[in-house]
Specification:
This protein has 255 residues and is an alpha/beta fold. The chain has helices spanning 27-42, 68-74, 78-81, 106-112, 129-132, 140-147, 150-159, 165-170, 183-195, 199-213, 217-232, 235-245, and strands at residues 3-8, 11-16, 48-53, 58-60, 95-99, 102-104, 116-120, 124-126, 163-164, 176-178. The mean pLDDT is 97. The structure holds octanoyl-coenzyme A (CO8).
Length: 255
Amino acid sequence: MALIYEKKGKIAYITINRPQAMNAFDPETFKEVSDALIDFRDDDDLGVGIITGAGDKAFVAGADIKTIIPWLAEHSLYWEKIPTIMRGLELYKPLIAAVNGVALGGGLELALACDIRIASENAIFGVPEVTLGLIPGWGGTQRLPRCIPHALAAEMLFTGKPISAQEAYRVGLINKVVPLAKLMPAAEAVANDILKVGPLAVRAAKQAMIRGTSMTLEEGLKVEVDLTFPLFASEDLAEGRKAFIEKRKPEFKGR
Ligand code: CO8
């Protein structure tokens, strides 16, 4: 199987599983990732997703140069039928990228479309598309300069040269660098912290962040208001207030 999709408690684990090809996305894997993301979005029992790669070398080495690049060339509106978080899919549950090795091209673009990125020390990050005569077409030209300084994004996008995990941490591309053996526990620790708080509030916060990125401050503040007021009517906020007053931990239900 090119993808392993597992559910443990409220966490969904999406593992790209083509280690023989550095977990590069061929057309089948791409479709399976899309299906898993849609299931994650629609399953009310799931709160946080963790995306990683199989093995200890690669997160995802990008689009499969041998198979998916010719396929993409023939499917110009592919994201309408096969939407992913890179393009086409609105998904407001938090996603954590557990970057366990090379994150190149579409692999970095996948990580950039996640909310939180934790990497192992052996990870590298790059957008080598220009070395093939292509540009990052899964959001890299847009999300990378929104995430790190323009000059560094430009250097990465124009030369295709990767940066190390330490450098990625230094420039704010990732949240944390840990030894490989501690990568999944570190990702799960963040997931569990998110699962302790109000799930409707977390999704509203993500939606406000994501939509606000492409808006003026004024427009973004309007979106924030629109997403805040429904929370006043939620059982979760009533429970959160009650728990605060009663000096106990809240039990959120996502309602
Ligand atoms: N596609 C296909 N096969 C790959 C890929 C890839 N992206 N990356 C690695 N492989 C395969 C290799 O061909 C090799 O297979 P084989 O054993 O059959 O020869 C196997 O994986 C192992 O790879 P290496 O022997 O090269 O392993 P190394 O440890 O020496 O190097 C690297 C690992 C650094 C990852 C190296 O393989 C590499 O540079 N790979 C290419 C990375 C790359 O250029 N990625 C960008 C691809 S383009 C892209 O992602 C575009 C996305 C947006 C498209 C949207 C358009 C609309």
